[in-house]
TrEMBL record:
It catalyses: 5-oxo-L-proline + ATP + 2 H2O = L-glutamate + ADP + phosphate + H(+). Keywords: ATP-binding, Hydrolase, Nucleotide-binding. InterPro entries: Glyco_hydro/deAcase_b/a-brl, LamB/YcsF/PxpA-like. It holds the Pfam family LamB_YcsF. NCBIfam families: PRK05406.1-3, PRK05406.1-5. It is an enzyme of class 3 (hydrolase). Catalyzes the cleavage of 5-oxoproline to form L-glutamate coupled to the hydrolysis of ATP to ADP and inorganic phosphate. Transmembrane segments: none annotated. The keyword ATP-binding applies. It comes from the Bacteria. Its EC number is 3.5.2.9. Forms a complex composed of PxpA, PxpB and PxpC. This is 5-oxoprolinase subunit A.
């Protein structure tokens, strides 16, 4: 039995430090690397890619709405031509940096508001799918587990990777608790590790209302910008491996 463990990295910007990429890369099997539209500067992104290559960590393009000020967490009503070009641009930029770092981009994971919006919005979802296919149809697409996007992407011929979140609260319908509501972000490493073992073993998580929600996931995300993120990711990995579950990139498990 195996599952992927991923984190959002490359998000530091100039003097503003976000997360501990070097430490997190020693724990995860896949890294969603910022492309400069919600966070990340070229030099910092390149360093993260070099570190990931040295650790043998799989690389994904963490594409976003163009929203540096809002960290990509604000919805944007972009025209299709603009959104498609934006996603193509970001993937291409990361591909160039990855080549220089001796690695390559193998999948795409939308970030923040874009990730959540295209989980249910058919038009913007189609734009992101079209952009990924235009660059490289062999790229995987990471999607919220159980979302409409998972079906749309598969119908379009993309490989989909369904994802669960270690450090985010779930609602009874399987969606994430909005960040401005109580229970949205979880901080206790032991509690998070226990619920991810439940996810890996039973395919379920306990929602904020106490109900049990079925979540069939190929990958688990620990946000790199969360307080104590490295400790949380380490505890999740330890708990899973102690139970006989192998941590391996979803791209290697194909």
């Amino acid at each position: 039995m195996n599952i992927d463990l991923n984190s959002d990295l490359g998000e530091s910007f100039g003097a503003w430090r976000m997360g501990d990429d070097a430490a997190m890369l020693a724990v995860v099997s896949s890294a969603n690397v910022a492309c400069g539209f919600h966070a990340g500067d070229p030099a910092g992104i390149l360093q993260t890619l070099r570190s990931a290559a040295a650790q043998g960590v799989c690389i994904g393009a963490h594409v976003s709405y163009p929203d540096l000020v809002g960290f990509g967490r604000r919805n944007m009503d972009m025209a299709s031509a603009d959104l498609q070009a934006s996603v193509i641009y970001q993937i291409g930029a990361l591909q160039g940096l990855a080549t220089a770092a001796g690695t390559r981009v193998r999948y795409v994971k939308p970030h923040g508001a874009l990730y959540n919006f295209i989980a249910h919005d058919a038009r913007q979802a189609a734009d992101v799918i079209a952009a990924v296919k235009a660059v490289d149809p062999s790229l995987g697409l990471v999607v919220l587990a159980g979302s409409a996007l998972a079906g749309w992407a598969r119908e379009a011929g993309l490989r989909t990777i369904e994802e669960a979140f270690a450090d985010r609260g779930y609602r009874a319908d399987g969606s994430l608790v909005p960040r401005n509501q109580p229970g949205a972000v979880l901080h206790d490493p032991e509690a998070v590790a226990a619920r991810m073992l439940q996810l890996a073993r039973d395919g379920t998580v306990t929602a904020v209302d106490g109900s049990v929600v079925r979540v069939a996931a190929d990958s688990i995300c620990v946000h790199g910008d969360s307080p104590g993120a490295v400790t949380m990711a380490q505890r999740v990995r330890e708990r899973l491996t102690a139970d006989g579950i192998t941590i391996r990139s979803f791209m290697d498990a194909a």
